[in-house]
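#struct-pred
JK: can someone run the complex with fructose -6-phosphate? inputs below
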Amino acid sequence: EKGGYDHFMLKEIYEQPRAILDTYRGRLLADQGIIKMSGIDQNLEKFMNANRIIIVACGTSWHAGLVAEYIFEDLARIPVEVEYASEFRYRNPVITENDVLIAISQSGETADTLAAIKLAKEKGAFVFGVCNVVGSSIARETDAGAYTHAGPEIGVASTKAFTTQITVLTLIALKLAHEKGTFSTSKYHEYLAELESIPAKVEKTLESNELVEHISDIYKDSNNCLYLGRGYNFPVALEGALKLKEISYIHAEGYPAAEMKHGPIALIDEQMPVVVIATKKGHYEKVVSNIQEIKSRSGRIIAIVTEGDKTVKELADHVIEVPETSECLTPLLTTIPLQLLSYHIAVMRDCNVDQPRNLAKSVTVE
Ligand code: F6R
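RT: done, structure tokens with the ligand placed:
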């Protein structure tokens, strides 16, 4: 049932090229320049007239929501707020009939996310679900939705659910951007083609597995780890840190790289591995100067870079390459080595990868 892999988590990491393809299959018609999603098509007015989009979720799904915030604002120019479902529902939020709420949940059973949906519905907002489990409570409670079609995710640590959630949200953002005419038709076609090439690029990224295993062996006994990224890759840093925490029990924190100098830089010494996402587009020079700051304080740097990068290679202790793509799609690639890093470290520490202590696959209690 694990298809020859030692753990479900590894199997699910390797399933991502296929899962992403399944997510956009029948929806992304790149040749025709069409994105077909019935849940959006039937409710287009709601999205086009929305004052703002509120995204609610928990854990890894919340990180996918943060990536979506960058995509929606950057491409579709719609204001977005991303909220932890548990905070949103208890703080008497301002919700109007012109708000669209998007709830993201792999299991579709997360209690706080479900409660946030009910609250938003009571206040008259239109509620859209992005779920993986078909027929789940959240899928049933929402006004409309789009499934991720990632297939069953069994490992407690979410992997393919995350990348397929980002894929669905990217499709929605591109569709709305095109409807609104926020960028040229040629740019739109470029994005569609680029999205279509992502499964092959994820496949290529997975080739770094042996290198990541080697790096994992060097850092497996660390007590702490810092993850840094900017822009689209800031949420990826948060997600990388969560993966390491939950399955290897190493304390890890994710930060926007520029925030480092406002506190976390005090933690840096030769014992501290720092994982930096430093892909070519998106504030590259700024990230390079963050890397220099870490290096001058003897921090150990594991950098995720764009194929062929030379500058970071000279500064970092280790570099892991990902293929080049549009900036907004880089999270789909940069996430992969971070998943592998947490996986290998957890295996080397003899942790129960698929069923980490104290965690459940779906959190149906509040
Ligand atoms: C992390 C993880 C959790 C879930 C969170 C939300 O790897 O699995 O953080 O992402 O419990 O779960 P869903 O997406 O099912 O609502």
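RT: quick notes.
The chain has 16 helices and twelve strands.
Residues 58-61, 105-107, 110, 113, 156-158, 242, 246, 362-363 surround fructose -6-phosphate (CB under 6 Å).
JK: thanks, will look after standup
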